[in-house]
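User: Hey, quick favor. My workstation is busy. Could you predict this chain's structure for me?
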Amino acid sequence: MDHELAKHGFAGFAKRVAATLFFTFFPADCRICGFPLLRVSRLPVCETCLMALRPLQGSYCTVCGEALHFPVCIECGKADCEEANRGETRCRLCQRVHPPFERAAAYGSYDGELRDLIHLLKFQQVRPAAAVLGRLLAETIASLEQAMPVGTITVVPVPLHRRKQAQRGFNQAETIARGALKRLSRPKRFELSTGVLVRRRETGSQIGLNSHERRENLRGAFAVSDRTRILNRDILLVDDVYTTGTTASECARVLLGAGAGRVWVATVARTLKIYDVISLSGKEFSVPSSQFSVNPPSYTENRELRTGN
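Assistant: No problem, here it is.
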């Protein structure tokens, strides 16, 4: 027993010495906050930044996942009334036109440390970041799973154009999805299907485009390579970021057009804009915008000001 303790104690001591020597001769800083790293790790991100990766909190549209302000209850005047928090809530856009997917969900807001971690993977090729992002995506998928039907779910990553994928060396959506499926409690229920959805042409930046221009920019960009792989199947479309929803909607439309049953969307992060008008149990309420901002843009303007997906 004493021998084993001594052996483990020496191993721990040797590990600490090796780490000290490593950081003495090869100093490294956190790639997000710049603070010196205190442990040897394949992922050059400190524990503080990793702990800052927080899930979304608050009220969201049950269809597209947009952030919502709950109005006060018209019966009791309370914002946290049980009656007001019961049932399905939808943003005004989803009230008017239901998107081609059943529901979209994301782990966190596309800002701060989460955005920086995604950028490390996509633009600096820090591959170990995919494991952490995969864990976050797994949590998102788990939250969606209860709303999905029984049976196998086909997981389809949003594809990159072959030229961009060759340049980057990987498709971040696929890489993150692989990490996520390893962490699910029932991984065999989810079947990763790569190459079934393809991007036929490169598309320009969505930044600065209005809703119509964004749709036209993506029109015809995606196609299904083999319909038999998705025919009548329930699909989980996965990506790193959900911004305006244009990409997710176009991919879902193409998949449904090729014979897929239904489509859900799961992403690691999403951009958020808060809207004041929602529907509760079929009734529409409005909260005065002056309570939250000065001269806020309209609902449509808010959604169109965001960058492309």
